[in-house]
């Protein structure tokens, strides 16, 4: 398993503040872990994105179009406040 990135505890805290009970950890697929989607097709996968990246990069035509075309589900979080800013599915 790959090492968790620095945002893992922030996203986990934001989810807990939003009322989620964490029953499995790691919370998301990391590099090289895409087999989780194959092994657990009943799970909805979300890409966790910091708010500033969502408001800037993800609003550019190419990334915005790719997110829509491939129907990528996003969990947008505020890393400073450790809260969920937006669920986009």
Question: What are the salient characteristics of this protein?
Answer:
alpha+beta, 33% helix, three-stranded mixed β-sheet, Trna Endonuclease, Chain: A, domain 1, 89 residues
Describe the overall structure:
The structure is a single chain. The chain is an alpha+beta fold and 89 residues long. It has one domain: Trna Endonuclease, Chain: A, domain 1 (3-Layer(aba) Sandwich), CATH 3.40.1350. The protein is 33% helix and 17% strand. It has four helices and three strands; from the N terminus they run H-H-E-H-H-E-E. It has helices at 8-17, 35-39, 51-55, 61-69, and strands at residues 47-50, 74-78, 83-88. The chain has a three-stranded mixed sheet. A hairpin with a 4-residue loop joins strand 2 (74-78) and strand 3. The longest helix has 10 residues, at 8-17. Mean pLDDT is 82; it is low at 29-34.
